[in-house]
Amino acid sequence: MIKEITQFVDEIKEQSYIGNIELKEGLYLLLDIQKKNNKVDLVNFSDGKFTNDDDILIYKKNDEKSKAYSKFLNYQQNSIPVSHNKSFVLSAFDSICSPFGIGFKKDFSIDKKKETIAERKVKVKKYLDEYFKNAQSFVLTINHKEWFFNFKEFCDNQFFQFIETLDEYQKAKSGTLINMYLKMPSIDDYKETYQKYLSERVFNTDKFNQKIGDAIYGISDSLNTFSGKKAFFRHQTSPLDLNYRVTGETAMKLWKFFQLQKQVLPNPLPIFIDKDELLNEKIISIFNEDRKMRYAEMIKRLFENHQKDLSDYYLLFVQRREIVDFDFVPSFRYNFKEEMIISNLFGLNEIPKRRIENIFEFEEKIISKIFNNILVSIFRNDNQQITGTELHYFTELTKEKNKFIKETLRNRRGLLNLILKYRKAIYDYIYKSKIQAFTNPIFHDILFKNVLDDIRLDKFENNKHSYWKPIREKLNIWFSLYNYFNINNQNKENMANKIEKHREMIIEVATGKKNIQDDDEFAFAAGQVIYYLMSKSKSADRSYSRLEPFLQKSDYIEFRKALRNTFNMYKHENFSTKFKNPFANVMDYVPDSTNFKEIIPTLLAGFFSECALFADKEKKEIDNEIENINN
């Protein structure tokens, strides 16, 4: 893994990613400090203002990128601390690590308790002394030394006077980032000192460094921040709780990679090895065109022009600076070999059939829906255009701060368990084309439990079912793809066609032209009978949760007993002639199967299909009611 990441960094040209690295919001100052007559002076500052407009920049996100912006971005990229723990002063000047600059947040020294201005200045002076003491070890040349000590003298004697007379500083809000850089050193000087800083600080600690030949091997600070739970990052036989030792050069590349990943690289990231390096360049250039571009859209662009090359690559997923998955993908399947069609079987206001064109459309239109927009969260505007996507294949959902996710999972422990159980298999199926990862048993387990959960949580308020649409969306997906993920390619019966046959069957049973012949017909008819009986209820509770007691029965005897009890509750009502024969058939039929759970999917299909047991007058009333609910 380390080899592949460092090779990727080697192949990417600077100009390919620098365009999308962003300057942090804040106030940026370029100080022209010179020494004359044994006294240092800030020669480009007078009467509270900088004499050169390009020497000061107040930057907010999405501001126009000026000449000053590019200049300060270059300084920023050659002075970023490896991590907070590798700052020169942990509690204060922690946004820059360079002998030629300091960075801090306004009012950083203020304690919660009250303190005098004099006390604050003493504290800041202490921080400055510590900063320059640590920065001095990265001074390399005579010029560096001169600039460094002039800078230190300025901060020792004029720091407070300077910021107190700077208009922009006084107007800045508390907490604003303030970054100051020396003007005299060239960018090459910044790079030179920064490379020395990186070479020493990219190791987590020098405690475990080993010298082999001329090279120092140590523990990469980037990798050593990873969780110990990720077994593939650790020596399995090592007696020490350590990660792999790497050279300083490798550690620097790893650090650079994570800087790029945070600001530039798509996630997940395909890394093409032993191919034309232009393909890796293409990934960066496509992503640079639009930072909001989804990984799926980027792969689509690559697929259109490099279809034959989308194979033999590594796929890497980073979550909060932690590599949570790294795997080899021998070939990527963008389109489905077998046509994937979703039929509108349960009365949604949409076209009768729609084709799922590719694997990412499957993720967007199937996976997002069957997991209630939690595993794959799709955000849309009022015109139903996608405005954002969040993938939760590796998210710690129990700690998720998103309000929608927190509220949904609070009442749906079963949904959370399904996500945690199957999300890795789904990720492998979509992103690594591991067809065997997502099978029929997994698909049925997800749909079975989530549909029942939707039924349990449904409420009927303001003449509407809260889960009217989610239940029907899931049922459409379930029965349209009922045998699609059968990897053995056996018994691929078309369930959508079967449901249509059941609907024809129930009409014949209702009119006395036939009787129930098998378990599937029994289950479908039972769903129709339950729906009809529930329609007789005068209760204010008309939610689908009333279906739960029937679905929780352990055997057919208990199920029929529940049907009989429900019938007796409404026996004083008028029943249509179309109801009598199906009800009698359901009560008399003896199923071949002994497992009642096996018939529940078909029972649900019967319940949520248009009920054929109503008399014409009843049907008209029900149709009007459904139209109101659907609208």
Record the SSE blueprint:
Blueprint: H1 2-11, H2 14-17, E1 26-31, E2 33-36, E3 39-42, E4 45-46, E5 49-50, E6 56-59, H3 67-77, E7 101-105, H4 117-135, H5 142-165, H6 167-171, E8 177-182, H7 187-201, E9 210-212, E10 215-219, E11 245-247, H8 248-263, E12 269-272, H9 278-289, H10 295-306, E13 311-318, E14 323-331, E15 341-343, E16 353-355, H11 359-370, E17 376-380, E18 386-391, H12 403-410, H13 413-431, H14 440-457, E19 460-461, E20 464-465, H15 468-480, H16 495-510, H17 519-534, H18 548-551, H19 556-569, H20 577-588, H21 600-608, H22 616-630
Helix pairs in contact: 1-8, 4-5, 9-10, 13-14, 14-15, 16-17, 16-20, 17-20, 17-21
State the helical fraction. Answer: 40-55%
Largest sheet: 4 strands, mixed
Distance between the termini: 53 Å
Strand composition percent:
5-15%
**Tally of alpha and pi helices:** 22
**Domains, number:** 4
Oligomer: single chain
Spans where pLDDT lies below 50 across 5 or more residues = 224-243
Mean of the pLDDT scores?
84
Find the structural class using helix and strand composition. Answer: alpha+beta
User: Which shape, going by the Cα principal axes?
Assistant: elongated
Output the keywords.
four-stranded mixed sheet, single chain, 22 helices, 631 residues, elongated, 20 strands, alpha+beta, 4 domains
